[in-house]
Write a structure and sequence with these properties.
This protein is mostly helical and 430 residues long. The protein has 19 helices and two strands. Strand 1 (255-256) and strand 2 form a beta hairpin.
Amino acid sequence: MTSTSDRPSTPPELAVDAAYRADWGRLLSLLVARTRRLDLVEDALSEAFARAATRWPADGVPTDPAGWLYTTAYRQIVGRLRAEAMAGRKAPLLAIRPGWQPDDDAGDRLADERLHLILLCCHPALSKESQSALALRLVIGTPTDQIARLFLVPITTMAARLTRAKKKIVAAGIPLGAPVSDELATRLDEVCRTIYLAFTAGYAPGSGPDLLRADLAGEAVHLADMLHEVALAAPQVTALRALLLLQHSRRDARVRHGQLVTLADQDRAAWHDDEIRVGLDLLEGLEAADGYAEELRLQALIAAAHATAPSADETDWERIVGLYEALEALTGSAIVRLNRAVAVAEAQTPQAGLAVLAEVADVLHNHHRFAAVCGELAKRAGDIGLAIASYQAAIERCDNEAERAYLRSRLAQIGGQGRPPERTGVNQMG
């Protein structure tokens, strides 16, 4: 189990946050596997972290923070179970697949149990809009407000959706454990979608000071690796692993001195060539497919086009535009069109990119990324009034402190227009 004990100098107030980042999903998965009480585990684990925030500053950080949190949460669950027994209540338990037994020794089985929990959340008895969202909340520990932002719905809507899904799992006796027969194949799209959303959350962490969470993205890569081991022939799983490896290979170049570094300005020598090679090898044998498998393959091909370009100026933007066109035709996604607008601006002119961007203004007008892209392309096109207004809107709508600082720096640079606008690779964050 991951522990913060190897960081003894960590102040208590930071140790709680470090433990949450490192161990939430693992602890929750283990507690669900051991107690079979999905209805109790999340609240008990949240209470354990709350107690840690109060006690660790006074008593000191325990030698094994994750073990302390697990024991505290487990005791609370046991207390609730005893209270229910005394009251004569028989609350429904989470079903366990016959023949599947969790290992009470947390260590080696923990990652597998996380994958089991994702498979549980992606059961077809749950609504499509709930599956990935529930897995993000339970397995990754993504806050509800950030999940709502990823799914572009109000926080209250997402909170109600998550509550209904958890209740349905318990009431319907949906089993925890490895799917049997063809069940795994029917869930693969949603499992892949969940892992990719978890990866995306690592590079778009929402409110707070973090510009990125490479550790969280790395956990998603690890889950993709495990899924690939058990579903080697599934094209969507292969494409997912390729995509995540190609994107994650750039993690060490994304931030410099606490500031965002866009793809065009990244030090390509800091990219992980070994991961790029594995990603490219996975893509090489992957043929065109249908549905979500093809969506992931196209995204991986876009990532590969960036990964194989010797420099930003040598990027094959025409090819990337074509890949985005195919991806948009497949998905109808406004976000894909936003990214296509950036590629069109690079391959043709900023004005051409703005024309594509205008096509999704009605859908994305409240999204800070739309405003940021509009601001950058307008700046490069020489429309300073639109650039200023767009950057101001992006800053107002962005809830990430580090990203807001980056947007403010871009806005501040508009004052010096005596020279041509610098190349920024806006929104191509790599």
